Amino acid sequence: TRSINLAVIPGDGIGQEVVAQGLKVLSAVLPQDVKLETKEYDFGARRYHATGETLTDADLDALKRHDAILLGAIGDPSVPSGVLERGFLLKLRFAFDHHVNLRPSKLLPGVASPLAGQPEIDFVVVREGTEGPYTGNGGTIRKGTPHEVATEVSVNTAFGVERVVRDAFARAQARPRKKLALVHKNNVLTFAGHLWTDVFNKVAEEFPEVTTEYMHVDAATIYLVTQPERFDVIVTDNLFGDIITDLAAAVSGGIGVAASGNINPGREFPSMFEPVHGSAPDIAGQGKADPTATILSVALLLRHLGHNAEAERIETAVAADLGERGDAPRSTEQVGDALAARVAG
Ligand code: IPM
Ligand code: MN
Fold it and tell me: Does domain 1-104+257-345 have CATH number 3.90.960.10?
């Protein structure tokens, strides 16, 4: 596209600060002839307190008209836990069928990792985004009694598993190492685990060049720390993916640089790009949040829309900037300015 009609959701806490820098870098990287239009939406804690709304049908209709969505972070201690998570973020992921939750991990030169020896880390997690234990399928009986029973059913459909597994194979096929690991827990979760394993093995036949392996999720947490270099692409269930991508972020530069895309590959609905970190109310308003994760999320957004050269320019700029960053703390704005200057120049 030669124009981008972007929905911008700064959200709560540091969301406002980091999104401003993401937009600054986006404007700087786009060539003159690509027209950028943005519309800001006020979702998050303030809107919830003012109106009781998190995300209405009318909001979804409005968002649907955009090419993509850039999100900062949603969440505030003044809102009970779960309200914005379910009422905004998960509602949007489900409504727009964001079944590929893409979370790359790359340890860039100059960035410290808690892992001794600074291994080569460059993998991407394809986390399923619309099924598993996230569907809200469950219930409680005998609530508040010593005999309370709570269920939280993990929903896995052949359709949902196959499309995300296929997406992960295609991504592995397109990378130099062509490796794909299925991460699950099929020794205990026998119903869902066997569905995932069967579908994975079936789709593998169509991708003979891709080297595959299966790993239990508990073992994966060990290898992500002891041998992260062995991973190329990982495909996994929604909840396992949530957990291992925080671990992945921690070993590859921290959540200050972890980007993500909530992708609807068929483009029936706009995809949404967001830093993996949250709204960090403890440091909000101080201008010290690292906008790099948001800026890298902008790169994912550009690649999704087919602006590959611009996406690469941002990633190259971030790598160069991190390599030269040193220990002196820089403000949110200074990092944004430095990256905007690099991508423009
Ligand atoms: C994430 C977050 C969300 C998730 C929460 C806030 C609902 O942890 O994007 O990883 O669990 O998916
Ligand atoms: Mn998470």
Answer: no
Kindly give the number of the ligand 1 atom that is closest to the alpha carbon of 260.
9
Closest CA to 289 of 340, 257, 249, 332: 332
CA of 322 to the centre of ligand 2 (A): 24
- Summarised one tens digit per residue, pLDDT across range 280-317 is 999 999 999 999 999 999 999 999 999 999 999 999 99
Question: Is the C-beta atom of 90 inside 6 A of ligand 1?
Answer: yes
Complex-level ipTM beyond the 0.95 threshold: yes
CATH of domain 113-252: 3.40.718.10
C-alpha to C-alpha distance for 297 and 19, rounded to whole angstroms: 10
286 is in an annotated binding site: yes
What residue ranges do the domains of the chain occupy?
1-104+257-345, 113-252
**Alpha-carbon span 14 to 244, nearest angstrom:** 24
Question: Which residues are catalytically annotated?
Answer: 134, 185, 218, 242, 246
Using a 6 Å cutoff on CB, does residue 246 contact ligand 1? no
* Mean pLDDT taken over the chain: 96
What value does the mean pLDDT take over residues 57-78?
Answer: 97
DSSP assignments along 307-337, one per residue:
-HHHHHHHHHHHHHHHHH--SS---HHHHHH
3-class SS at 95? helix
Residue 198 structure tokens: 């069967």
User: Is 64 assigned to a binding site?
Assistant: no
Q: What would the pLDDT profile of 99-129 be if each residue is shown by its tens digit?
A: 999 999 999 988 888 987 888 999 999 999 9
Report which ligand 1 atom has the smallest distance to the Cα of 93: 12
pTM value is 0.96
Q: Which ligand is nearest to the CA of 250?
A: 2
The pLDDT of residue 1: 55
Q: Are 268 and 97 in contact (CB under 8 A)?
A: yes
